[in-house]
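Below is one such protein, fold included:
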Amino acid sequence: MTHIMILSTIQAALREREFDCWLFYDHHHRDPISYKVLGLPDNLFVTRRWFYVIPKEGEPVKLVHRIEAGHLNTLPGSQREYSSWRELWDNLKAMLEPYKTVAMQYSPNNLIPYIGLVDAGTVELVRSFGKEIMSSGDLVARFEAAWTDEQIKSHFAARDSIDAIVSAAFKEIGHRGRNGGATEYNIQQWIAEAFRREDLITEDLPIVAVNANSGNPHYEPRPEGSSNIKPGDFVLLDIWAKKKAPNAVYYDITWTGIIGAPSEKQVKIFNIVRDARDAGVRKVQEAFSAKRKIAGWEVDEATRAVIASAGLAQYFTHRTGHSIGVTVHGNGANMDNLETRDDREIIPNTCFSIEPGVYLPGEFGVRSEVNVLTRNSSAEVTGKIQRELVLI
């Protein structure tokens, strides 16, 4: 029953976007998106190629190897089988015969590598049948990135815990830093223990970075060699986690502060990054209020323009933000016109980070990260918003 309901929703989405069909394909778990969208088990033993065509109307069709004939039994539709490569080609060609436009996990020029999961040879094969291959990016976002009401509740529950942990962490940093008893790694482990108390889980431990280390966006404090924290130090905390519950989703934020009084330069850089962040948030809010479609790259442009106008474009070295879901980097639109040109639509009930940064080599780096949750006609920042540097 679950898959029948999913099928009707998928077919409605195909009609809405004017795609004739959606072709799912996998070999050796190369495409995890297919498993998630179709509800297939992650541990399915796959040694042969399988295909599954969902048309915008009518019955789906499966194509499986005879020695793995039961792999798609949980999915609705008729089934074809093959043993030889000629049978595979003939069957796949016949399955696609009625259709012109075929959605696949494909991204033109691999601009969005998170979606470009189908190998070039399979793309060539489908095109040899006279088909026009379209990117499934917006379809994937609808079925992979849109949150349920329960997931939204789990996000806010994680927010409540993490916002409190960040506040407490800054106090702990100040106390230990002034008494000579803290390294970046020590504070990271303190936060990890707070996660355990709050029933939070995470894919990777948080970033605690001081001074020049905060200028490295993906700095990782290690047990050996992490910096001591002392008065006068600039501190960056990047923290992400979710509640330990089925299908819970992440909350992911970055705050910065200083033990003591900030320099004029630190305040200036923070204010520029803060204003860039707010410009990105406004861009989303204005589009949703006006019910205007907006793509991820547009948000990146809005934030990047603020930093560029301050003459600091070369120091903003990453995208503005990423989709957030059951993994901290989800399968919805990213806020990106730098690393990729993400033309996927930002759809309702999805969440993403807006986190511009300016990183000055050898000095310090500022990143200010919030999470934005979209609704049908509005968008909101889901947690506390940092307006000035934390004076620790």
Observations:
- The radius of gyration is 24 Å.
- The domain at 146-391 is CATH 3.90.230.10 (Creatine Amidinohydrolase).
